[in-house]
Amino acid sequence: MILNPDAPSPLRDFSAILTAPPVPVEWDVEPMIVHGDRVMLIGAWGSYKSFLLTHLALHLATGREWLGWPIPHPRKVLYIDEDMNVSTADRRARRIGLGIGVEGDVPLRFAKLGWRITDYSPTKLIECVKAWSFVPEVVIIETMRRVLVGDENHNADVSRMWSNLMPLSAEGWTVILSHHMSKGNPEFPRPLRDRQSGGTAILSDVDCGFAVVRQGQSNAVDVTQTKQREGEEVATFTVLVESTGDLRQGPITLRRDTTFKAPGENPWGANGR
Fold this sequence. Notes:
Blueprint: H1 14-19, E1 27-29, E2 33-34, E3 38-43, H2 49-62, E4 77-81, H3 86-100, E5 108-111, H4 121-131, E6 138-142, H5 144-147, H6 155-164, H7 166-170, E7 174-180, H8 201-204, E8 208-214, E9 220-228, E10 237-243, E11 252-257
Parallel strand pairs: 3-7, 3-8, 4-5, 4-6, 6-7
Antiparallel strand pairs: 1-2, 8-9, 9-10, 10-11
Helix pairs in contact: 2-3
């Protein structure tokens, strides 16, 4: 917003706020992700980040509840994957779709654009999706390291990235990024909210944050909501990633589980403390 003394006043009267009926929260996933939020999911290499995000994307597009949490409205989803090669990403999406039981087309599109988040590229993306006749409501971007211009350790560069993404937020889109987690030190453990690889602006500038920690070398991953502006974070939950049939081509299912105990030890525990 550019300040202009000749423009109408943007100031909001508290008495009007007090007496107006509250605006209901519009959820993408209730009660975890608010529509229009900027979301960051962090996890170490091999922690099933992209499995979770692909699974989430398919559920958002179909309007099916995700791991037991309701999705009030189906969403059009654009998944920008700058991390994996196209054939691997498509194969994984197909297998997860088979595991869910998705049939036919859904409002979900995947793309590898060679995209970087500059001061003009989000506006160009908006122009392109309109020209391509697919205007999303949710954009998932993998990974931050691939699209960031600058150094993830420099807060000014990260804050500039979030600022450059504001045109997508102005469209009302939810923006979800994935990022890597630092290895940490079991002797001096840090909370998961401080375990991102890079500067503090990576998480301080978001509305909603998640951290995923794989239980040893098992197929279980603990998901912790580290930040939620609209209310209390949901409790840490465990997701099992399971393959059936052909181990290379068969369906992949993800399900929430409250009883699983990994045979391997996670040195930082389920909540990273």
